[in-house]
Design brief:
This protein has 417 residues and is α/β, with parallel strands linked by helices. Helices cover 35% and strands 14% of the residues. It has 15 helices and 13 strands. The longest helix has 20 residues, at 275-294. The structure holds pyridoxal-5'-phosphate.
Length: 417
C-alpha cells in the first residue's frame, strides 16, 4: 500500500493519508496524529512557544508576506504563535477529517469563531446576514445588536431565498437548534442560499450524527467547548470549511488574536478520540430520558431531535426553577456536551440576552428546560430528575406531554408524545 501520499495542509501539518478511506471512529482516534509513530511518540506533543527563533530574517519576511497575501502557511515554524501552532493544527486537521472538509481553523471559543466568519464577510463588503431562530443566545445577540457592523434579517427557512440581498454574506442556521432542538432540512436550506455561503452550527449534532457539508453547507461551526472537548474543561471554537475560506479566517485570526491556546488544542484533540463513543452513549441516555419525560404528567412537552443526539428539551407544568434547584446528581449549569449531565433554564441563562418576545416566538418559553445527557447510568439520572420534578400536578392541571407542532416557524421538531 502506498503510504507516501501525505500532502501538506495550510496548517503546516501533514494531512491524513488519502490512499484509503477511513471510518469516522478511526479518524477520531488517528487523524491529526498520523506522524506520531514516525516521531517515536504516542501522545501528541504540546508546543507552548509564543515565538519561533530564526537567524534567517529575510526568509521570515518572505513567509510573513506570503501569509499576508493569501493566509497560506508553508512547512516552516509559524514565526509567532498568533499565526499558527502545531498542537492546535493537529486538532484542526482531525476536525476537518471528521467533518469531511479540506481545512479547519480553531479559535479561542465558539463566539470567537463566529466573529471571525462575520469579519471575513464584512471585510468583503458583505455585511448582511440571513439567520433562522432559534440560535444560541449569544449568537443571536451578536447579530441582533450588530456589534460587528453586520445587519441581520431573521426569517423562517421558507423565507431564506427572498431575504437574500446583493450584500448578503452569510446564511446562519443551527440544526438541531439551541435550545429547542428544532431541526432543519439542511439540503433545502443550502439550495435556498444559492451562492451565499451557508454556515451550519453543528455543535449539537457533531460529525458523529451529521456532516453539514454533505448537505451543501460551506461552513461548519462548533463550540468546541461542548462535545468536541467533552469534559467541561476547555473553551474553544472551530470552523470547518474549504481551504480558500480557511485562509481568510487565519488572516482574521492573526489580526484579531482570537487564537486557541495550545493546551486547549491538546485537550480538544484528545477529546475527539472518544467523541463517537461518548456521543452514542450519551444519546442512548437522552433518548431514554426523553421517552420517560414524555410519559410523565408533570411534563407538558418534550423535544427530542429526529436525528437523535444527547440533548433533550422539555417544558414543565410546574416551576422550572424548582427543577434546576432540585437536582442533586445532575449538574445545574449552562453549557452542554460534558461527560456529566447538565440542566439549565434557557430563558434565564443561555438565551437571557435574547429579547423576551423573540425568545417566545422562537419557542423558548419560560417553562422550557434544556438537558445535556452525560454518561451516567440512566436509572440514576431518572431517579434524580424524577425527584427534582417534584410532586405531580393535580389531576385537573395535568395533561399528557403534547405532540403539537413546534413554535419555531417552518421548522420541524422531533416532539415526543
Ligand atoms: C450552538 C452553540 N454555538 C455557539 C456557542 C458559543 O460557543 P462558546 O461558548 O464556545 O463561545 C454555543 C455556546 O453555548 C452554542 O451552544
Amino acid at each position: 500500500m502506498d503510504t507516501n501520499t501525505e500532502s501538506r495542509t495550510g496548517s503546516g501539518l501533514p494531512a491524513a493519508p488519502t490512499a484509503w478511506p477511513r471510518a469516522l471512529a478511526t479518524e477520531a482516534v488517528h487523524a491529526g496524529r498520523d506522524d506520531l509513530a514516525g516521531l517515536g511518540l504516542h501522545a501528541a506533543p504540546i508546543d507552548l512557544s509564543t515565538t519561533y527563533p530564526s537567524h534567517d530574517t529575510r526568509g521570515e519576511a518572505a513567509r510573513i508576506d506570503a501569509f499576508a497575501a493569501d493566509g497560506a502557511l508553508d512547512d516552516g515554524p509559524p514565526v509567532y504563535a498568533r499565526l499558527a501552532n502545531p498542537t492546535v493544527a493537529r486538532f484542526e486537521t482531525a476536525l476537518a477529517r471528521l467533518e469531511g472538509t479540506e481545512s479547519a481553523v480553531a479559535f479561542a471559543s465558539g463566539m470567537a469563531a463566529l466573529t471571525a466568519v462575520l469579519l471575513v464577510r464584512g471585510a468583503a463588503g458583505l455585511r448582511h446576514v440571513v439567520a433562522v431562530r432559534p440560535l444560541y443566545g449569544c449568537s443571536d445577540h451578536l447579530l441582533t445588536a450588530g456589534l460587528l457592523g453586520s445587519e441581520v434579517t431573521w426569517t423562517d427557512p421558507a423565507g431564506i431565498a427572498d431575504a437574500i440581498r446583493p450584500d448578503t454574506g452569510l446564511v446562519l442556521v443551527e440544526s438541531p437548534a439551541n435550545p429547542t432542538l428544532a431541526e432543519l432540512d439542511l439540503r433545502a436550506v443550502a439550495d435556498a442560499c444559492g451562492t451565499v455561503p451557508l454556515l451550519a452550527d453543528n455543535t449539537f449534532a457533531t460529525p458523529v450524527l451529521q456532516r453539514p457539508v454533505e448537505s451543501g453547507a460551506r461552513l461548519v461551526l462548533h463550540s468546541a467547548t461542548k462535545y468536541l472537548g467533552g469534559h467541561g474543561d476547555v473553551l474553544g471554537g472551530v470552523v470547518a470549511c474549504d481551504e480558500e475560506f480557511a485562509r481568510q479566517l487565519r488572516q482574521v485570526r492573526f489580526a484579531t488574536g482570537g487564537v486557541l491556546h495550545p493546551l486547549a488544542g491538546y485537550l480538544l484533540l484528545r477529546g475527539l478520540s472518544t467523541l463517537p463513543v461518548r456521543v452514542r452513549a450519551a444519546s442512548a441516555n437522552a433518548a431514554e430520558l426523553a421517552r420517560r419525560l414524555a410519559a410523565d404528567p408533570r411534563v407538558r412537552r418534550v423535544h427530542y431531535p429526529r436525528l437523535g443526539g444527547a440533548m433533550v428539551a422539555f417544558e414543565v407544568h410546574g416551576d422550572p426553577h424548582a427543577v434546576t434547584a432540585g437536582v442533586r446528581l445532575i449538574t445545574p449549569a449552562v453549557s452542554l456536551g460534558s461527560v456529566d449531565t447538565l440542566i439549565q433554564h434557557p430563558a434565564s441563562i443561555s438565551h437571557r440576552v435574547v429579547d423576551p418576545a423573540d425568545r417566545r416566538s422562537s419557542g423558548v418559553s419560560e417553562s422550557l428546560l434544556r438537558l445535556s445527557a452525560g454518561l451516567e447510568d440512566v436509572e440514576d439520572l431518572w431517579q434524580d430528575l424524577d425527584h427534582a420534578l417534584g410532586p405531580g400536578p393535580s389531576a385537573s392541571a395535568a395533561a399528557p406531554a403534547s405532540a403539537s407542532a413546534h413554535a419555531g416557524r417552518g421548522r420541524t421538531a422531533g416532539v415526543v408524545s
